[in-house]
TrEMBL record:
One of its GO terms (biological process) is xyloglucan metabolic process. Keywords: Membrane, Signal, Transmembrane, Transmembrane helix. The chain crosses the membrane at residues 7-26. Pfam families: Por_Secre_tail. SUPFAM superfamilies: Oligoxyloglucan reducing end-specific cellobiohydrolase. Residues 832-897 form the Secretion system C-terminal sorting domain. This is Putative secreted protein (Por secretion system target). PANTHER family: EXO-ALPHA-SIALIDASE (PTHR43739:SF5), XYLOGLUCANASE (EUROFUNG) (PTHR43739). The keyword Signal applies.
């Protein structure tokens, strides 16, 4: 029977097999939920203000290293522009072959990433409509107060959202704007050629759909536009003019033309805020001798600006960095200004201005410094040089002020009370556990970027932090409690991910930037996207082992730390070792007893991963001793699949100046001296030439795919004789020749080999990349997210995709489909009609065993919607399902298959 591709895609696109993990006890899961707090405190204990500044720089260096052209030392703007253009053309083009892999989210759906802005829709009297922006994840919208979020920015663009604004005028409140380009703090920002924004985007339908304002167009390739970095947006309540606080300037857009209202002519922070009557206040970051530094006001926002504060005026005003403003809604003559300073006890100063009498009052003495000793980066108030600096005033009380830095604080009466008190961020100044106080309070998160009061209820406060979106229903209580609103607010930034090697398990784990290590898929988890934090600090490499009945997790944190959580719970960092910032290690997915650790230039190994201690690792020498370039750091490993065999198993080692070594029989090796240098001859061994993928075929160890991340070089190679003394490599870039390749995997399904590469702009696949172009995977789900990590499980063809900004996804790899036709006898399940309405008819073919067929229906976010036993008529009732795309899983006698279907 032959059917068209359209029908095939509708009927038999393979979905996920969601299997139970009954072996994983509830007791252990409870233990995991209890452990994170202790680990987090332990690992963040030394994270002083200087540490945090240094870590931010190290993240930046890490990302620069992955992108610089080794021949020029720069990130080529032309290459990045070409990468953008090609990625769009690939998405639009119909390839000769297309993957049938269906991806679903693996979350985390309950944890959020860095959020710089959120706005409550003033046209919604319930305040349930909110629009929020993830710096690497895009724009999200909720209409139920944060119980669920929908991503509304397009997946075919990358949006590092920094500010959101709504037109406040009656009749125009359907108009929204968001800005892009994070000036400070973005892990993807690049020195010399920053990870720029894409200007300003507008919605005219209440934030549901968005289009770029052409006058702000920027393609993230060169730092040449005033709209590459935008700090704040505001809309004038009388004219509807849009104000943008850009680098060192305030610009106004009347719908036709941009006018520069203030310009400090330098690279710095700025801020703008507008009263309900149309008076505009602006703030420009401090700098000694700068005539534009300070606070400005204009009665209309169109010219006629006057400076109302600056260094030395008023006396003791000493701004040396970022400055933010807040107006009291109940008395708009009251303005607050907070800025980074170098001249006082605190990292910031706080001032209060009475506009009607032109008087400033210094309130800095009231800034928080909690008793019991200082806690670097935590107490007294810390703002990380202005990275996290925000302020708001309670709508019904001009004296009630909330401020944010690393932590969130409130003062209910700034005139009479002595000091601010902590209400979020870290729990207290005795450590670095997350704030979880108050009655039934969820965990809050440090690094505060947005503080927003509910316009309908001034007692409700929302926050946007490095941990997403939270709210408190009563900011007045002595101990404020928070509610986590990260419900499908998928914005996590992963460096590395791993999947449980047991095919009966749903467990996944990932190390995320500044958000520690998260894991999910436990048997007691409510769904596949809910995760728990199992380690703190900056997340790094990860691993899940079946080498012990307790199922050890291997996790770590920045600058070398590696931890094994069971059976003993131990930091196992090799004695005397050093590591890169994003600590890298590799647990052999087929032989979990073997663990390899990258100690910069030195390789450490153990064949007793479950019992290794810091002193029992074996040091095998440096990469240079095996033929690599001197002082080359180890950045990637890969091992052969299947049962370990001393005569055929090998380890691949990749460096940051391009070298690739093969170490045969690695579990018995005592030195790198006998490692074989198999680096392709076409590789220029210059720093940085970073190996990001060493993917070995699941059944044929001679087939290897090698990838590099840097621009301006050849990035994808394939060999079919990897075990030879001198393997022959072929270039396999084809239509990805301009791309930064960040990860790689090779799958084999029904005798067909399928290659996957994760890039700086999406996930791509090809069954024959030597001769056929690459096709984009999951363009409407994963989109153009940076694919930082791929983890493959051959036993059931699961591919776990880790993104930097869009969380995790997982798919079951299937064979490719011809554009023209597909033979349905190759499948084991067919479902019809397409689309379905009230019921779905199931046809079983070939070897799928009949019997008590258990069925489950999931949405694409991994939530189980329905389950039951398939009737003898093999029909599934769909009457209670909403319209959309779903995954149907059938299981019989331990055999599981899944397909997608459409409900009309």
């Amino acid at each position: 029977m032959k059917i068209t591709k359209l029908l095939v895609i509708s009927l038999i696109i393979m979905g996920m097999a969601f299997l139970s993990v009954n072996y994983f006890t509830v007791e252990k899961e409870i233990a995991y939920k209890q452990i994170p707090e202790k680990k987090e405190k332990k690992k963040k204990e030394e994270k002083s203000l200087e540490d945090r500044r240094r870590f931010a720089e190290e993240r930046l260096k890490h990302e620069i290293k992955f992108q610089k052209n080794p021949n020029t030392g720069r990130i080529p703007e032309t290459e990045k522009l070409k990468e953008i253009e090609i990625s769009k053309s690939i998405r639009q083009k119909n390839s000769a072959k297309s993957s049938t892999t269906t991806y679903i989210s693996r979350g985390p759906s309950n944890l959020g990433g860095r959020t710089r802005s959120l706005v409550i829709d003033v046209s919604d009297p319930t305040s349930n409509t909110i629009i929020s922006g993830g710096v690497s994840g895009g724009v999200f919208r909720t209409t139920d107060g944060g119980l669920s979020w929908t991503k509304v920015s397009a997946n075919n663009e990358i949006h590092n959202v920094t500010s959101i604004a709504q037109d406040p005028r009656d009749g125009f409140q359907n108009i929204w704007y968001y800005s892009t380009g994070e000036f400070s703090g973005n892990s993807a920002r690049l020195g010399g050629s920053p990870y720029l924004g894409q200007g300003i985007w507008q919605s005219t339908d209440g934030g549901i759909t968005w289009a770029q304002l052409p006058s702000t167009a920027s393609e993230q390739t060169s730092d040449d536009s005033p709209f590459d970095f935008i700090h704040k947006l505001e809309v004038h309540p009388a004219t509807g003019d849009l104000y943008a606080a850009t680098r060192g300037a305030i610009r106004r857009y009347d719908g036709t033309v941009w006018t520069t209202e203030l310009d400090a002519s330098r690279d710095t922070f700025s801020d703008v805020i507008i009263t309900s009557t149309g008076k505009v206040f602006a703030g420009l970051a401090g700098n000694s001798g700068d005539t534009f530094e300070g606070v400005w006001e204009s009665a209309t926002g169109i010219g006629s600006w006057s400076r109302i504060a600056g260094n030395g005026t008023p006396s003791n005003w000493n701004s040396t960095g970022r400055l933010v403003l807040a107006v009291a809604p109940s008395n708009e003559n009251r303005l607050y200004a907070m800025y980074v300073t170098s001249g006082g006890f605190y990292e910031v100063d706080l001032w209060q201005f009475e506009d009607d009498v032109d008087t400033w009052t210094n309130r800095s003495i009231k800034l928080p410094d909690e008793p019991g000793g200082d806690s670097p980066g935590n107490d007294p108030i810390a703002v990380q040089g202005g990275y996290d600096l925000v302020m708001a005033v309670k709508p019904d009380n001009e004296n009630f002020v909330v401020i944010g830095g690393t932590n969130a604080y409130k003062i209910e009466d700034i005139v009479t009370e002595t000091t601010f008190t902590r209400i979020g961020g870290y729990r207290d100044n005795t450590g670095y556990g997350l704030y979880d106080l108050g009655v039934n309070g969820d965990r809050h998160h440090p690094d505060i970027h947005a503080l927003v009061f509910d316009p309908q209820n001034p007692d409700i406060l929302f926050t946007g932090t490095d941990g997403g979106v939270h709210k408190t229903i009563d900011v007045n209580v002595e101990t404020v409690a928070w509610v986590n609103l990260n419900n499908n607010y998928q914005t996590y930034q992963y460096y590395h991910v791993a999947i449980d090697p047991d095919p009966s398990s749903n467990i996944v784990i990932g190390g995320a930037q500044d958000n520690g290590t998260t894991a999910g898929g436990f048997s007691s988890s409510p769904d596949l996207t809910t995760m728990v934090t199992v380690f703190g600090g900056d997340g790094v490499a990860v691993g899940v082992s079946r080498d012990d009945a307790c199922v050890p997790f291997f996790e770590g944190s920045q600058n070398g730390n590696i931890y094994r959580d069971c059976p003993d719970g131990l930091t196992i960092t090799p004695d005397g070792s050093n590591s890169q910032f994003v600590t890298y290690f590799y647990l052999d997915p087929s032989s979990n007893n073997a663990l390899y650790y990258a100690g910069r230039t030195d390789l450490y190994k153990t064949t007793q991963s479950t019992t290794v201690t810091p002193s029992t690792w074996e040091e095998l020498g440096t990469l240079a001793s095996g033929g690599g370039v001197l002082n080359e750091w180890i950045v990637r490993f890969g091992t052969t699949w299947g049962t370990y065999n001393p005569s055929s198993s090998y380890l691949l080692i990749g460096g940051d100046t391009g070298s690739v070594l093969r170490l045969d029989d690695p579990q018995n090796a005592t030195s790198l001296t006998n490692a074989v240098d198999i680096t392709p001859a076409a590789v220029t061994r210059a720093f940085p030439t970073v190996v990001t993928g060493l993917a070995i075929h699941p059944t044929n160890p001679d087939i290897v795919m090698l990838t590099y991340s840097n621009y301006g070089i050849t990035n994808i190679f394939i060999t079919t004789n990897a075990t030879a003394a001198t393997p022959t490599w072929e270039i396999a870039e084809r239509n990805l020749d301009a791309f930064s390749i960040r990860s790689a995997a090779i799958a084999e399904v029904e005798g067909e080999t399928i290659y996957f590469v994760g890039t700086a702009r999406g996930l791509y696949s090809s069954a024959d990349p030597i001769n056929e172009d690459w096709s984009i995977e999951a363009p409407d789900q994963i989109g153009y997210a940076l694919i930082s990590s791929l983890a493959y499980r051959p036993d059931d063809n699961k591919l776990l995709v880790g993104t930097h900004g869009n969380g995790m996804y997982i798919g079951t790899v299937n064979t490719t489909l011809s554009v023209e036709e597909f033979n349905t006898t190759d499948t084991e399940i067919i479902a019809y009609p397409v689309p379905a309405t009230n019921e779905l008819n199931i046809v079983l073919e070939n070897t799928f065993i009949e019997g008590d067929l258990v069925y489950k229906i999931f949405d694409l976010n991994g939530r189980e919607i329905k389950n039951g036993i398939l009737s003898e008529e093999k029909k599934v009732n769909l009457q209670n399902l909403n319209s959309g795309l779903y995954v149907l899983q059938l299981q019989s006698n331990a055999r599981t298959k899944s397909i997608t279907f459409i409900k009309r």
